[in-house]
Write a structure and sequence with these properties.
This protein is of the alpha/beta class. Helix content is 40%, strand content 20%. The protein is built from eight helices and eight strands; from the N terminus they run H-E-H-E-H-H-H-E-H-E-H-E-E-E-E-H. The longest helix is centred in the last third of the chain and has 20 residues.
Length: 186
């Protein structure tokens, strides 16, 4: 609760999190689009993007700006006001608290070496949403994760990646919101 207060969120908010570099392979552009769709249905959702700007010099703010240029009708001021950006380095304690203050970790990656943040999130007790068919299949288990359907593709440079299905991502995000809502009604 204290961490949520620091981030201007309350207990009624449903919070999605991603911790990663804001590079194309991480699929954060898809996450922003999916979040925009979700925001239209659930006004109380929030998205936290913890970037690695200190290491890679690519900020979440810049990525959001690029996505907004592609989808100006979708990335509204209401959506933007519901996205929280964290660019500073965090201590292990702060990172653990960040994971613990969120409801779901989302990783709609196109290509990933291992994806340690999704395991960190699961270790902190929050469910994760992961692209199916990639590196996270090595440790995926339905007890803590949902899979995003994806299609294998090959780039012009002949490297392989998975394009996450936007509808599958939105569906998984909605399912977890509805699951929490049904638990709150009991």
């Amino acid at each position: 609760n204290e961490i949520r207060k620091k981030l201007n969120m309350d207990n009624d908010h449903f919070v999605f999190l991603n911790v990663s570099a804001m590079t194309w392979n991480k699929g954060i552009d898809n996450l922003i689009v999916a979040f925009s769709v979700i925001k239209k249905k659930y006004s109380y959702v929030r998205l936290i993007l913890k970037d690695q700007a200190n290491l890679y010099k690519i900020t979440a703010k810049k990525l959001i700006s690029n996505v907004k240029k592609k989808f100006p009708h979708l990335i509204t001021d209401e959506v933007l006001s519901s996205i929280i950006l964290i660019s500073k380095n965090l201590t292990l304690k702060e990172l653990s608290e960040l994971y613990g203050s969120c409801d779901v970790y989302v990783s709609p990656y196109r290509a990933e070496g291992f994806n340690i943040p999704s395991l960190e999130a699961a270790a902190c007790g929050i469910p994760v949403i992961l692209t199916s068919g990639g590196s996270t299949d090595d440790y995926y288990h339905p007890s803590f994760a949902l899979k995003i359907e994806g299609k294998r593709k090959t780039s012009n440079g002949n490297w392989n990646y998975i394009e996450p299905n936007l509808e599958s991502l939105v569906s998984n995000m909605s399912d977890l919101i509805e699951k929490r809502n049904s638990l709150l009604k009991k």
